[in-house]
Amino acid sequence: QVQLLESGGGAVQTGGSLRLSCAASGNIFSIDSMGWYRQAPGKQRELVAAMRWRDGGTDYADSVKGRFTISRDNAKRTAVLQMASLKTEDTAIYYCATGSSIPTLIAGRGSWGQGTQVTVSS
After folding, report:
1. SS3 for 106?
2. What is the distance between the alpha carbons of residues 46 and 61, in angstroms, rounded to a whole number?
3. Which of 12, 24, 57, 106 has the fewest Cβ atoms surrounding its Cβ within 10 A?
4. How far is the C-alpha of 58 from the C-alpha of 3, rounded, in Å?
């Protein structure tokens, strides 16, 4: 079992920046990939950023490319999502997730954090 503890989030105005962190504990050696999902009210859950742990390979949803950056701290087994140039449509609950592979992460079959609210106002 992997436990995920998220921090960061909050409220910001359009154009601002926020940083989310996700610390993993437990069976961390089972983690191949980590990522961030978000879900806005009335919308489907969306995977916005993913990282393959062993080589740092990343991928992003088109909606956040060029604005969001996912990175990792190997020693702390922490994933960070740096969000810049935020828009009102970025408002959502953001969830950290892990997977034993990229397909597992995409399928949402790994571990999940509790979620953290990000609110962007104009």
Report:
1. helix
2. 8
3. 57
4. 22
* pLDDT by 10s per residue, the chain, length 122: 899 999 999 999 999 999 999 999 998 888 899 999 999 999 999 999 999 988 889 999 999 999 999 999 877 789 999 999 999 999 999 999 999 888 899 998 999 999 999 999 99
> How far is Cα of residue 15 from the mean position of the Cα atoms in its chain?
19
Which helix (H) or strand (E) covers residue 19, if one does?
A: strand 18-26
Rg, C-alpha atoms of the chain: 13
C-alpha to C-alpha distance for 82 and 70, rounded to whole angstroms? 6
Strands 116-121 and 10-13, sheet pairing: parallel
Distances (CA, A) of 84 to 20, 51, 65, 69, 108: 11, 18, 10, 9, 25
